[in-house]
């Protein structure tokens, strides 16, 4: 074992990145720095490794050693209260990151520092790895800290290695363990249900443990997504305050514990939920956890969100810097009631509207038990002969004739009990062998832990592409949670939830290997599966089945803290009471689509939509790749306002809405812009003006960027102008 004492003082410097090692007396400091921040680990003379700091980086790395001694918060009884990865069963008294039962049945663990290494992956990316080992048992853990320097994002995960002679049981196995010192902490968390995704709540964290978790297995985020924010000392605003964003990149059961301890410090431990998931690790086996992502900003939520959005576009979201297809979807236009003829009509409407693609939703498959409602047919992925006598191929061909692309809905992980698939393969279904079945939306989940099921699910997608090479888009749905978790295939039921998610990722890996670029929408009865592990396979997600534009303003607002606009599929539908202009304006704030009966639109409504799509095509580079600034919060004001500004600060598009119906409400005050160039001159004009109406904005006026940011601009929102889209253009 390499000890601390023979380690030399070394600081590694390389272009743009500073990750090093400083040894001062018997304390070793490992600063992990991004552009603005540092996460600092410290190893003491007894090889305990602590996380001593995560905050704005200091000018001199040698100052990090003085951090801990500057805090006089009380007695430290264990030497591991601020552990970088809290082990349990020995000295520790707090919530652990890892709990194991050794091969001999012993439950104690201590993890001491062995060595550390830094691997540079590019000018922007470096991975620090820290090897820890139990001094008594042959169990190793490696902590990984991957930094994305310019985006101020840190990705953490761990590897647990069993070098013992027999099986080790992992009772808890977190991805990451943070320890934050501060005066007080404020948590912003989210909750929801179907059509009510991303409802925020902010509260001061009190002593004890607050757990954010899910045990749903699939559609795991239905009640609670894993994204959260922690503000330090006082609640952060868009532009002020220190705030940490965190999320586990994982599509199954997660658990994040936030423990305010007796010293008033905050321990954050996040990983796979260990709920009924004790994991047996065989000798020489390695358990790799999913990644926990954080970004930290000292200038409010806006900076944090822009950092996370850039990171997602640059490194995580599939084709994050690429393009997307506008579309017409038939779900709300037809539900299950359609046939080839009707769809041919909709393909013509797709062309008429001016979008890129027609998306055929649920209801196109199954014959013995036709999919004419959500009670039957799921799992039987052959075209329904009655509705589509000439198959999908004929629709793809007709789409080509109309010069539009064709996409299709699938939900390949699921099965209706009333299906041929269920009849043939009851052993492929997740259910308790001795208990009555219990359904979510009349369906059950297929056992993705079983490789045969993985092949089947892959086959659903592969066959569609093999038969229709010109298929241009997939909407992948996942509508059920897991009840009665049990796999006939698995010997160890405690591995079920984990193996399910591994199976899912294996299928998605295979799909992406064969079809690397085809756009896929991540849907889960709405936003039930929006996370940064799934999004590496998907180009976009469906935030919610709730498309009421007023609701969407609030929902898209919250999603925008964590996910870039290019990933948010927003469709114009008939939900809500607002006119088509309002609905279209709101949908334009992300990836635009429609789910309406085009033939029911009045001539003016149709004209408006056609023009708005053209405008969208012009501005989509700014909406997708620009910097997003939330200007006026619908939860705090009668007007919601959000602006997207190009990197060169020459072009912008601002969306403004009335969100309060009370008498006389509107934009009484000018709305202050952010992100413009103070020294540039700008013109502001109105976009998406409804046919036959006139804009009240004087497009000829010239404003200094400085004025627009210090005084602001009034979009003239009132009861007659409830939705106003503005073009900002530098002269
Ligand atoms: C889910 C999706 C909807 C639609 C239906 C089809 O609810 O969220 O968009 O695709 O399934 O059954």
TrEMBL record:
Enzymatic reactions: Hydrolysis of terminal, non-reducing alpha-D-galactose residues in alpha-D-galactosides, including galactose oligosaccharides, galactomannans and galactolipids
Q: Which SUPFAM superfamilies match?
A: (Trans)glycosidases
A Pfam family of this chain: Glyco_hydro_36N
- Give the UniProt keywords, A-Z: Glycosidase, Hydrolase
Top-rank taxon: Bacteria
Task: Give start and end of each Glycosyl hydrolase family 36 N-terminal domain.
Answer: 49-282
Give the E.C. number(s).
Answer: 3.2.1.22
Q: CDD domains, per this entry?
A: GH36 (cd14791)
Where is substrate annotated to bind?
194, 361-362, 441, 475-479, 523, 545
User: Which residues are catalytic?
Assistant: 477, 545
UniProt domain Glycosyl hydrolase family 36 C-terminal: residue ranges: 641-723
GO molecular function term, any single one? alpha-galactosidase activity
Return one Gene Ontology term, BP aspect. Answer: carbohydrate catabolic process
Q: What class of enzyme is it?
A: hydrolase
- Family membership: Belongs to the glycosyl hydrolase.
Q: What is this protein called?
A: Alpha-galactosidase
């Amino acid at each position: 074992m390499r000890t601390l004492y023979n380690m030399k003082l070394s600081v590694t410097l390389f272009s743009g990145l500073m990750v090093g090692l400083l040894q001062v007396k018997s304390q070793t400091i490992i600063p992990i720095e991004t552009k603005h921040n540092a996460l600092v680990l410290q190893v003491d003379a007894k090889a305990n490794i602590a996380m001593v700091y995560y905050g704005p980086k200091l000018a001199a790395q040698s100052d990090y050693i003085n951090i801990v001694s500057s805090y006089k918060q009380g007695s430290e009884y264990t030497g591991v209260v601020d552990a970088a990865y809290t082990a349990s069963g020995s000295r520790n008294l707090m919530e652990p990151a890892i709990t194991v039962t050794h091969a001999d049945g012993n439950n104690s663990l201590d993890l001491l520092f062995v060595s550390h290494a830094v691997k540079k992956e590019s000018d922007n990316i470096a991975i620090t790895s820290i090897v820890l080992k139990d001094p008594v048992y042959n169990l190793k853990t490696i902590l990984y800290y991957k930094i994305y320097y310019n985006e101020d994002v840190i990705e953490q995960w761990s590897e647990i290695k069993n070098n013992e002679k027999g099986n080790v049981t992992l009772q808890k196995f977190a991805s990451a363990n943070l320890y934050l010192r501060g005066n007080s902490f404020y948590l912003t968390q989210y909750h929801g249900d179907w059509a009510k995704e991303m409802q925020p709540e902010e509260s001061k964290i009190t002593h004890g443990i607050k757990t954010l978790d899910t045990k749903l297995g699939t559609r795991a985020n239905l009640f609670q997504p894993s994204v959260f924010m922690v503000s330090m000392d006082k609640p952060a605003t868009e532009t002020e305050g220190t705030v940490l964003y965190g999320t586990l990149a994982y599509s199954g059961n997660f658990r994040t514990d936030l423990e305010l301890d007796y010293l008033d410090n905050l321990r954050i431990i996040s990983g796979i939920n260990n709920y009924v998931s004790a994991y047996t690790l065989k000798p020489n086996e390695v358990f790799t956890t999913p990644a926990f992502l954080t970004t930290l900003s000292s200038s409010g939520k806006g900076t944090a969100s822009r950092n996370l959005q850039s990171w997602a576009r640059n490194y995580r979201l599939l084709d994050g810097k690429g393009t997307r297809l506008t579309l017409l979807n038939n779900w709300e236009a037809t539900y299950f009631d359609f046939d080839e003829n009707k769809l041919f009509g909709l393909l013509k409407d797709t062309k008429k509207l001016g979008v890129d693609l027609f998306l055929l939703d649920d209801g196109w498959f199954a014959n013995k038990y036709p999919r004419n409602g959500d009670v039957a047919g799921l799992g039987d992925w052959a075209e329904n002969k009655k509705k589509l006598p000439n198959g999908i191929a004929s629709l793809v061909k007709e789409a080509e004739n109309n010069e539009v692309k064709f996409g299709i809905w699938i939900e390949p992980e699921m099965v209706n009990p009333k299906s041929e698939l269920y009849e043939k393969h009851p052993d492929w279904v997740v259910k308790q062998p001795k208990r009555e079945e219990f359904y979510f939306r009349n369906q059950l989940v297929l056992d993705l832990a079983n490789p045969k099921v993985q092949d089947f699910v892959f086959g659903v997608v592969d066959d569609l592409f093999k038969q229709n090479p010109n298929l241009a888009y997939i909407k992948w749905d996942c509508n059920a949670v897991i009840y009665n978790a049990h796999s006939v295939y698995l010997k160890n039921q405690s591995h079920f939830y984990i193996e399910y998610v591994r199976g899912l990722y294996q299928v998605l890996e295979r799909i992406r290997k064969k079809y690397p670029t085809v756009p896929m929408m991540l849907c889960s009865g709405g936003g039930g599966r929006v996370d940064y592990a799934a999004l590496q396979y998907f180009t976009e997600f469906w935030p919610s089945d709730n498309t009421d534009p007023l609701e969407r303003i609030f929902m898209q607002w919250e999603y925008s803290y964590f996910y870039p606009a290019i990933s948010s599929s927003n469709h114009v539908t008939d939900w809500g009471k607002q006119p088509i202009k309002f609905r279209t304006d709101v949908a334009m704030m992300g990836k635009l689509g429609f789910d309406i009966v085009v033939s029911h639109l009045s001539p003016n409504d149709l004209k408006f939509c056609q023009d708005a799509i053209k405008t969208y095509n012009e501005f989509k580079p700014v909406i997708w790749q620009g910097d997003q600034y939330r200007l006026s919060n619908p939860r705090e004001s009668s007007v919601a306002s959000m602006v997207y500004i190009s990197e060169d600060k020459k072009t912008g598009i601002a969306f403004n809405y009335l969100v309060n119906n009370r008498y006389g409400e509107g934009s009484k005050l000018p709305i202050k812009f952010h992100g413009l160039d103070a020294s540039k001159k700008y013109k502001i004009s109105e976009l998406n003006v409804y046919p036959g109406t006139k804009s009240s904005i004087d497009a000829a006026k010239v404003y200094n960027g400085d004025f627009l940011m210090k005084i602001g601009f009034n979009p003239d929102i009132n009861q007659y102008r409830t939705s106003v889209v503005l073009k900002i253009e530098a002269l």
